[in-house]
Amino acid sequence: MIKRKAQILDELLVMQVRNGDQEAFEQLVVRWHENLIYQSFIRTGNREQSQDIVQDVWQWLIGHLHKLEDVSNFGSWIRTIVDRRSIDWLRKQKVNIELNNRETDGCYRNHDSDTADSVGSFEDTTEQSLCRLEQMMATLPAESKLIMTLYYMESHSIQSISNILGIPKGTVKSRLYHTREKLKELLKH
């Protein structure tokens, strides 16, 4: 299996962090922080809490990175930790989030309005399409939305998603299929 450059860089950074390199730790945070917040947000539906969860994971990681046996598994390992911490928060709060009943306040990602004004209509149309897709995905159950994000936006394999979420590969495949069908149906309307 050919490793991607990003994975090799993550492995190198993890090894450097294990050797006490603070700058390498900061680079890991920069590389992963926003994706982890978004992953937690998919579960919790709460941006502020997602930021707190991810911050707590980074603090925990400082003292526990040595527990990671294979540095090539860093991405799956940290995503699993964030996912489980997000689920723990939901359990503690006894919150049952129904994403289709939740109010949406636009797209999750922040967009710079000055940049949006300076780009052409193609970018505007693409931006609107992405926003519409995020709104449609918000109607999906959290688990399905997370699987779609990991598979299509983060390019994780079925096996990797199975490991992150602790569910069988067949369940991942089934949920991908059913979620794609649901999105197709939503696009028709």
UniProtKB/TrEMBL annotation:
It holds the Pfam family Sigma70_r2. GO terms for biological process: DNA-templated transcription initiation. GO terms for molecular function: DNA binding; sigma factor activity. CDD domains: Sigma70_r4. This is RNA polymerase sigma-70 factor, ECF subfamily. Residues 133-183 form the RNA polymerase sigma factor 70 region 4 type domain. Coiled coil: none annotated. Belongs to the sigma-70 factor family. ECF subfamily. Keywords: DNA-binding, Sigma factor, Transcription, Transcription regulation.
